[in-house]
Design a protein that fits this description.
Blueprint (H helix, E strand, L loop, with lengths): L20 E6 L1 H12 L3 E4 L8 H17 L8 E6 L3 E5 L5 E2 L10 E5 L2 H18 L4 E6 L9 H21 L3 E3 L2 H8 L15 H15 L2 H18 L8 H21 L1
Parallel strand pairs: 1-2, 1-3, 3-7, 7-8
Antiparallel strand pairs: 4-5, 4-6
């Protein structure tokens, strides 16, 4: 007897190696996943210019980040990039007609809200992934749609927005072999369709939900070496997170020094 549906997730067409550099751009869900990767010692850059929700703003972020990286001599683009889309709604500054990434708390009457079409979302995403591919020809881009609903649009409007993004991501994956889709949206809505997997606002996924998505992602895209690293790192991580009753004691300081040495040795062995 089955009590839930399980989303079938095919293996990603690449493997994520331990301690890799990763770029996350997009909604606050990208921040959540980026933090989780950072906790496991991946080299993470997450939303370098703040949270971005729509495909146009994601494109702007990637372009600005690449320009900044070039100016600082930052080297090549990471081999793996995650892009998480939240909405197809954008805001144009009436004075210039340009899509803004942040209204910067300016009066609402200065902006015009619009909804990007599937074709427009697809075009912005293609420009984004093509620019990344131009910088690194073996780049792998993972597209996701954030499971966070937008109550301000109404829940029907939120679903229409997500449907637009889902159709756009599908078109991009069909047109670019180095782009894959990871079904975070479907995992939350189909596997975890229970409010116990949400934060108290009943909108954002809980930490438990984020952890579960991490597990499904690890099944789909982590190499065996990465899985072994995470297995070896877990007891060291738990030891470092231990909250002692007497942190200044000689005994604890000795324990902490030994644990940090274990961490350094582990990183050196996988680096």
């Amino acid at each position: 007897m089955k009590f839930r549906t399980v989303v079938d997730i095919p293996r990603l067409p690449f493997l994520i190696e331990p301690l890799e550099e990763l770029l996350f751009v997009g909604s606050c869900f990208a921040d959540s996943m980026g933090r989780r990767f950072a906790e496991e010692h991946f080299k993470v850059v997450a939303n370098p210019f703040g949270v971005m929700y729509n495909p146009a703003s994601v494109m702007h972020t990637v372009q600005k980040w690449l320009q900044l990286r070039d100016s600082q001599g930052g080297g090549v683009v990471p081999r793996i990039v995650f892009i998480t889309l939240g909405t197809n709604h954008v805001y144009r500054l009436k004075e210039t007609g340009q899509i803004v990434d942040n209204c910067q708390k300016r009066p609402q009457n200065l902006f015009q809200e619009e909804e990007l079409t599937v074709a427009q979302c697809t075009d912005y995403l293609l420009q984004t992934v093509d620019e990344l591919h131009h910088r690194r020809n073996n780049v792998n881009v993972v597209l996701t749609v954030s499971p966070i609903r937008y109550a301000k649009y109404g829940f029907h409007g939120s679903q229409l927005s997500k449907a637009t993004l889902l159709m756009a991501t599908e078109q991009v994956c069909q047109q670019r072999s180095f782009v894959a889709y990871f079904p975070a949206f479907e995992i939350v809505l189909d596997e975890l369709r229970d409010y116990r997997f949400y934060q108290p606002d009943m909108i954002h996924p809980s930490q438990q939900a984020v952890d579960y998505i991490w597990e499904r992602l690890s099944e789909a895209g982590f190499s065996e070496r990465t899985k072994q690293f995470l297995h070896d790192w877990q007891p060291v991580k738990e030891a470092l997170n231990h909250k002692p009753f007497h942190p200044e004691s000689e005994e604890y300081q000795s324990f902490l020094a030994k644990t940090k040495q274990r961490e350094a040795d582990l990183l050196a062995s996988y680096g």
